[in-house]
Amino acid sequence: MGINFSNPLGVGGISVNMPVSRFGFTGTSNTDRFESTSVSRFANENYIKNAIELNPNIKTILKEMNAPVKLNLKELEELNQTHAKDTQNVAGGIITNLPKGLRIYVDVKAVKDAAYLHDIGKVLIPSDILNKNAALDNSEKEIMHRHSELGYEILKNSGLDEKTLRLIKYHHQNPSHSGYPAVPKDFFADLNLQILTAADKYSALTEQRVYKAPMSSQKALAVIYQDVKKGNIHPFVFKALRDYAENSVKNPTQQSDVFVV
To answer: Which of 151, 128, 258, 250 has the alpha carbon at shortest distance from 195?
Structure first.
């Protein structure tokens, strides 16, 4: 792919020898959880409408946003056709390319399910903000940032496990706690969350949107590499993403066999 980063695993105070516990790479392994149950059943009009009626928190958040209770069916369709599946495939590629010593700490099913459903809250974001063909102002950013919380509330009573729900709610957070929504000081951005965050960002950057052209794989990696330098994505997660991206460029029809919706 021709992308070169000088000292890619030793920049900004991050090195190969950095203890993985700094990034939350410890805990119980769940690598054998490969259930085939599809979570796409939650990303449909009827489920979301029922969730809105059953969970008053959703209407409370929309009222705080001064937004109508209106389901954006076009956004829902586009999510199902593009970003949801693509983020899931990228996350699977990252997992496949991680060192074996790290893969044992990945909850594959939780990452799989969260990758597909992470942006479902966007179907309740007003379309004039969601598809604005210009930079969002501060108030619009605040509304946009509520999508992860809305996604959590939509899915809270779905039967998904708490780990998956946590990934959906905090997929824009990081080890520096500089993302959203706000988190306590003891918040732990673990390996699963970093995989989802990296996959989501790579997918979003390389996709066509109404307000932007798709970014090349090389440029997208360069952008995400800044998160490595800041300490928000571990070098091994970035390297796994880069390996997946390079392989995808060489074999564009090849997808990871880890994730099938």
So the answer is: 258
